[in-house]
């Protein structure tokens, strides 16, 4: 009887596993033809983390259970690793070929705040919470949560928190900068340091999910939250589907990017909700020669998403030396972001754009600009002064960008563009309505952007 019951439970678990749906309708009537990404194929085999010593009690460390389960599946050719309801404390998890990590409803995978668990063997840096490198057919699915425990990693700016929140951080221990403007999670009462100084430890912050050089990737249904740094980072991956994912962290989380696509091709991002502390949905293409070698972001469709708190709803940059080619962004809502459409770069970080089409964007409560082009952007680490690159190479070239059907209510500045005409040109804005409170346009050269049937209004 026990064997029959176990078989029935196992069958139910297999049926519950989510697979990629049909996305053909999203690829109809596009301004340019895009390749629909190929979904991963996962063998019809399911195991439970509990079978390998896993425990959802919130206390037991499950790092070894995840390792054993993934290794066992890999030896059998792959399959689904089921994580039942519970709280699973763990160190880093690394996926292998043909494996789906499936988080059931009420399953919370909580990455340990013990920073030493993520140190690379050679001590050169940190590994992500969940990673895969040079893999094919990988997926993370379900209704559960991946939590990066980021409050134990991130520096905090005094200017971005209330008195009550600041006192809460001080109770944890940590280190306050000499000028009182920053709190570092260095010298905490409960956890050891991972470096010799607050600044060194700050530079070690890791991403929550990072997939590198992978082919056929699916992330579907799950919630990704509270990362030490960026939340979901596919880099140099092909055939990527991100569907119905929720990404969230505090609005003031330092470097808390939501979805960062780095030098990826054949990508679909759809039905996602992003509410984070830095850029919402962002495309990056590497800086300098390394960016060119890594290749462009290309053949990407971003549609049907909602972004709330974020520095930008949709962002290109700051680094895109590898280029941005054949990108469509349509039918998205940005509500409460600092900027709506943000294009940012600087010398040494720029590259070329081609065939970028943005349409049917709905914005409200935009703190700064609805649409902005920045070409003097300089990267800045917490507690350090930003330094612009001194180079004539890899200048930004924002061009061949076509924006239409923007509806924006309440933005401080409508459209802004700063830089040289060689950096911002051949931009079109059509059939749009922007309602601003302070300034309609702030554009260095009228030739940068062509307006047609655009209403920019105020009170």
What does this structure look like?
The protein has 459 residues and is mainly beta. The chain has 3 domains: 40-147, 3 Solenoid (Pectate Lyase C-like); 155-204, no CATH class; 230-459, Single-stranded right-handed beta-helix, Pectin lyase-like (Pectate Lyase C-like, 3 Solenoid), CATH 2.160.20.10. Helix content is 11%, strand content 43%. The strands form 2 sheets. It has a 29-stranded parallel β-sheet that branches. The chain has a 3-stranded antiparallel β-sheet with strand order 11-13-12. The termini are far apart. Residues 1-18 have low confidence and may be disordered.
CATH topology of the largest domain: Pectate Lyase C-like
- Tally of DSSP helical segments: 5
Overall mean pLDDT stands at 93
Termini gap: 74 Å
Largest sheet: 29 strands, parallel
Shape: globular
Task: Give the C-alpha Rg.
Answer: 22 Å
Report the structural category.
Answer: mainly beta
CATH superfamily of the largest domain, by name, is: Single-stranded right-handed beta-helix, Pectin lyase-like
- From the coordinates shown, what is the CATH architecture of the largest domain? 3 Solenoid
Number of domains: 3
Provide the CATH top-level class of the largest domain. Answer: Mainly Beta
Which stretches of 5+ consecutive residues score pLDDT under 50?
Answer: 1-18
How many distinct beta strands?
Answer: 32
Q: Tell me the helix content.
A: 10-25%
Q: Report strand %.
A: 35-45%
